[in-house]
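Renewal narrative, Specific Aim 1. Our central claim is that a sequence can be written position by position from structural information alone. The example that follows is taken directly from our test logs and has not been curated for this report. It begins with the structure tokens describing the chain, in the order in which they were read.
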């Protein structure tokens, strides 16, 4: 997902966790 660089720093951790689950 290319939205990882678009989300705020606070959501970076959440996005990273989601990416690990989706990956």
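The sequence written for that structure reads:
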């Amino acid at each position: 997902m290319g939205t990882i660089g678009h989300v705020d720093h606070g959501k970076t951790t959440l996005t990273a966790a989601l990416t690990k689950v989706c990956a």
